[in-house]
Amino acid sequence: MPTASRRTRTPLTALLLVGTVLALLFGGAGPASAHATMSRSDPADSTVLKTAPKQITLIFSETVSLSDGSLRVLSPKNLRVDRGSVKHAPGKPNTAQVMLAGKMPEGTYTVGWRAVSADSHPISGAFTFSIGQPSATTAVVATESTDDTAAARLYDVGRYISYGGLALLIGVALFVLTCWPAGAGLRPLRRLLLAGWATLAAWTLFLLLLRGPYETGRSLTSVFDLSLMGQTLSGRSGMALAIRLVLLAAVGIVLTRFGSRLGRVTDRSLLAADVEPAADQAVDQRRLGTGVQAVGALFAVGLALTWAAAEHASVGIQVPLAVPVSVLHLLAMAVWLGGLVALAVALYRAPAGTVVPVSAVARFSRLAFAAVVVLVTTGL
Question: What is the spatial distance between Cα 86 and Cα 89, in angstroms, rounded to a whole number?
Answer without folding.
Answer: 10
